[in-house]
Specification:
It is built from 17 helices and 13 strands. By secondary structure, the chain is an alpha/beta fold. It folds into two domains: 232 residues, 3-Layer(aba) Sandwich (Rossmann fold); 170 residues, Rossmann fold. The strands form two sheets. It has a seven-stranded parallel beta sheet, with helices on both faces. It is globular and about 65 Å long.
Length: 413
């Protein structure tokens, strides 16, 4: 297998303890490093204190600027064989520069989740309507994201629901799409034996990055609707809310008397979940697959979530707890899991089956590498077959290019 140089252009620095997106990016980086590929991570973002030191695992870190010719010099020097865009907005900003300066580099888009799906669902929720796929067709963000997918040689899609949506609703050629959920280790019997048992765990937990709107909404739903119903039946139970970047609105929900504790950022979510009896995630909108819910399965905590929470995550396998969109049922199911050991153990076993069946990195990782290698070996034919993508590359990005050039010129004045 040929040696590759992978340039990842990130929307933000990698912070795996702060977000599922950060964990996902680290999984991809580790997969590339396993192939002995050189990896360079570049971003325009300011590096925060929660960002991981990628240099410690052998990845070069580079700060880049937007709308600057310095990027052209930089990418020619790196001369990548693969460029991975972290989210479609990054492809919009840098895709034309990559295509001009490194035309033979394989262009991969990691969607993280379908932003258009999440944003449109949020809009529909605020308008108090029922979401329809046709709502997606009316929004500019959908057109932008689908165009970005078409322009790239391969897009990584995290959920089976989104794969189906792209293939069957938007009619995108399956050769341009690759289903890649989280890449996780199998859970073996030794790990299960080391978990704390039902009677050794306590409390309910929700973990989520508060820069992510669905998490803010879910905590408000817990506070205003669900927790009161649970607390009436379990007056000694507590709900612990964890997550990076809590807003003042979230911090003010903390109420010791109600057993509602806002804990903020936790550097080791694993330690929290290993001691939690039940994870709650009443997500009313969103997309992709949810790191907080795979994390619950990996560390033996059953969960209660919504249909959007569990969407595209478990195939035909039973959930590791309950899935319901009725918040009275949600509260009752949470109490049932918390108090019924037999039901709790069965839910935990379901979680193990889901992780081992759908998220095994020993299966998904090599398949990803094979797909990338096969496209690289036939890149000219692959691009010829993607006429819509080449058309968009030619037409749509011209406007992006010349807007960027205008900004460049303006900045020099």
């Amino acid at each position: 297998m040929s040696k590759n140089t992978v340039l990842i252009i990130g929307a933000v620095w990698v912070a795996p303890n702060s977000s599922a997106a950060g964990s996902r990016m680290l999984q991809l980086i580790r997969q590339f490093l396993q192939q002995q590929w050189e990896v360079v991570f570049a971003t325009t973002a300011t590096k925060g204190e929660k960002a991981m030191d990628l240099k410690s695992i052998g990845v070069s870190e580079v700060a880049i600027e937007l709308n600057q010719p310095s990027f052209d010099v930089f990418i020619k020097k790196v001369n990548p064989t693969i460029v991975l865009f972290d989210r479609f907005m990054i492809e919009e900003q840098f895709g034309w520069r990559v295509a001009e300066n490194c035309p033979n580099a394989l262009r991969i888009l990691d969607t993280e989740d379908l932003h258009c799906l999440r944003k449109v669902r949020h809009k529909v929720l605020k308008e108090k309507r029922i979401f329809s796929k046709n709502d997606l067709l009316k929004e500019a963000i959908t057109k932008r994201e689908i165009a970005s997918i078409l322009r790239c040689d391969l897009s990584l899609i995290i959920s089976t629901f989104e794969m189906d949506l792209l293939q069957n609703f938007f009619k995108i050629d399956q050769k341009l799409l690759y289903h890649l959920p989280f890449m996780l280790s199998q859970i073996d019997k030794t790990q299960v034996a080391s978990w704390k048992r039902f009677d050794e765990r306590k409390n309910f937990t929700m973990i989520g990055n508060f820069l992510h709107a669905p998490n803010v909404d879910a905590v408000l739903v817990l506070k205003n609707t669900i927790w009161k119903q649970i607390r009436e039946q379990l007056p000694a139970a507590e709900l612990h809310i964890y997550g990076a970047y809590p807003t003042q609105q979230i911090l003010e929900l903390h109420n010791k008397k109600e057993g509602f504790f806002v804990k903020g950022f936790v550097s080791s979510p694993e330690d929290v979940v290993r001691n939690t009896k039940v994870v709650l995630a009443p997500l009313r909108f969103g997309a992709g697959i949810k790191g907080k819910l795979t994390e619950a399965m990996v560390f033996g905590a059953p969960s209660v979530t919504t249909s959007i929470g569990a969407e595209g995550m478990h195939g035909q396998l039973p959930w590791n707890g309950f899935v319901t969109d009725d918040f009275e049922d949600f509260a009752q199911n949470a109490v049932a899991l918390y108090t019924d050991e037999k039901r709790w153990v069965a839910a935990q076993e379901n979680g193990v089956a889901i992780i081992n069946s759908h998220y095994d990195k020993e299966k998904t990782g090599p398949l990803l590498i094979n797909t990338i290698t096969n496209i690289q070996e036939n890149l000219p034919q692959h691009r010829i077959a993607n006429f819509l993508g080449s058309m968009l590359q030619h037409q749509t990005l011209q406007s992006t290019k010349y807007m960027s050039k205008w900004i460049e010129a303006k900045n020099r004045c």
